[in-house]
Amino acid sequence: MAEPTSAAGAGAGAGVGPVALRTSPLAHLAERMRTATVAGPRGVTLTERPFSTMVNLRVDPASEAADRIEKSLGAPLPRQCGHTTASGCHTVLWLGPDEWLALSRSDGSDGTAVAAELRAALGADPGSVVDVSANRTTLELSGPAARQVLEKGCPLDLHPRAFGPGHAVSTTVGPVAVLLWQVDGAPTYRLLPRSSFADYLARWLIDAMCEYRGPELP
Fold it and tell me: Which end of the chain is more exposed for a tag (fewer CB within 10 A), N or C?
């Protein structure tokens, strides 16, 4: 069983809070992901980026509440499928015509502060702000062969002409539903599966990476 994320958790006593004691969904596979790393021109790496703050937003994009939420985030809500926006520590992914996922870089908090700020921005207007940070984890797949690894089980056209940095969509990788976000042109992808499916997805990706240890066949 995975150890607590804080050394203090080993002798947990009074004053140790839930943030210090939380364990990521893939802590038990950290070493396997490290040893699966492939270097060189066919290189690819897989890591977990746990404990990101994730807030699901529902609001009419034409409303004053949406304007207030945008000011709180410092970024506009993307208006088209696949689009993302970013400002400072926040990135916003389009999920639907009136739905978004706001991601914030982890700062050791549990995400409640971000959700509280956005609820205050929504006010009494129709919509919802829900902290879903515990609902998903994030896998980062990066390197020259990252796209080829994903193409083994993702139905999307991932060629740069169709999918590039800043794009994020709901799709599947293998049998697992994920949010797939391309971060940069390395390429680096972040995959956001439900926490309960993260183990299966990580093992699927580790297996898909194996062939890139060998030379490319002519």
Answer: C
